[in-house]
Structures are given as structure tokens and as C-alpha cells.
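Why does residue order matter? Because the sequence determines the fold. Keep that principle in mind as you read this record.
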Amino acid sequence: MPDYIIEPPQPVGLPIAGNDALFPVRRVYCIGRNYAAHAIEMGDDPDRDPPFFFQKNPDNLDPSGKFPYPTKSDDVHYEAEMAVALKTGGVNIPVDSALDHVFGYALSLDMTRRDLQGAAKKKGRPWEVGKAFERSAPIGPILPASDIGHPSEGRLELTVNGETKQEGDLNQMIWKVPEMISYLSDHFELAPGDVILSGTPAGVGPITRGDVMELSIEGLGSLKIPVV
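Structure:
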């Protein structure tokens, strides 16, 4: 074992449904505006332009079951998503074999400091301050594809305090999961442990301390996240 000048950070591990072992996280890729109605509400054209991605940090993924309201923002928004966890990677992965690289799927949220993101966008600056803050991606246990298959359709809903805020269907994705994997592999070398957040439907909006968010996706169950 090599010696390090300081103690190296612990790897990020996510729970797996029905398994005591953890899924190790390498990178987190997030696709932007992947549902037409959400693209419209964010002021974009929903035509199939090439997809775009941003990144969160591995330790932004948080399986603790709660979301601490972050500092430096008065406008924090929920974005309900399905996460895709990869077991293998590579470059130039064909669309028709892309799903062979998927280990499983999970319920997740891409929490966003919308005010800080908006200020950065106006100045043409990167979004990390609005997207990659601590514990900005609550996530549930990973459900292995060997158990549930590869969901390509199914109702997605997010409620806040019991009121429906987001609803859609996985089949409304502009870029489907195999296409996302293939496109990313043309630009990055994907590897085991990579996680892709696959986009959110319309209806994003703010939360406050004391709210309770609940995300459900048909076939993946539900995930309840209180805002603390």
C-alpha cells in the first residue's frame, strides 16, 4: 500500500437493495433539460439538440434520507430524477449495447440553489455553486437491473407536503438511457461506479425547511426526504 502525506478520503458508497455490500461511486454526470416540458419551463427549445451534461461530486450523493437546507441561498429547488448506476464502462459505446453496462437504478433528487445558478448563468460562469453543494443529491437504494430490468417507462411523481408538484413518465425523456450512456462515452471514458442522473420533468420549484418531499417512480418504489 502506498503512503499518503494526508489521510485519503473514504470512497463514497451507496446502499443496494437486498445486499449488504455498497455500490462505489466514481463520477456523477447529470443531463440537463431532458424532458420537453421542463426545457420549455426553463426557457429552452425542446427539440433534440445534442444533450448537455454537468457534474456533481461523488459525495454530493446522500443516502441519509434527509436534505439539509444549504447556506447562501433563499431559493432552493427540487428536481426529481432517476439515477442510473454503471457496473462497466468504456469509450464509444454503441446505443444497442449500452444497457449491458448498467448495474441498476435508483430514485434521486438534483437539488439546486436556483438563485446562485441563475446568477452564474447570467455571467456565463459554471453552475457548480448552484448544483454541486454538499448533500445536493438525495438518493435511495440502488435496485439491481437483474431484479427489475431496465425501466423505460413508468410514472414519475414528486409531492411536497402531499401536494403533487412534478409528474411525468420515463418515456418522455428526450434522450433515453442508452443514448445518454453512448453520448457520454464519446466524450469521456466511462467506468464502473459512474452514476448518471437522467433529468427531471416539468414542475420544479422551491422548498423550505420543514417541507417533506416524496419521490415515486413506477417500478422503483418511493423515497421520502424531509427538509431540515
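The helical segments are 36-41, 114-122, 128-131, 145-148, 177-187.
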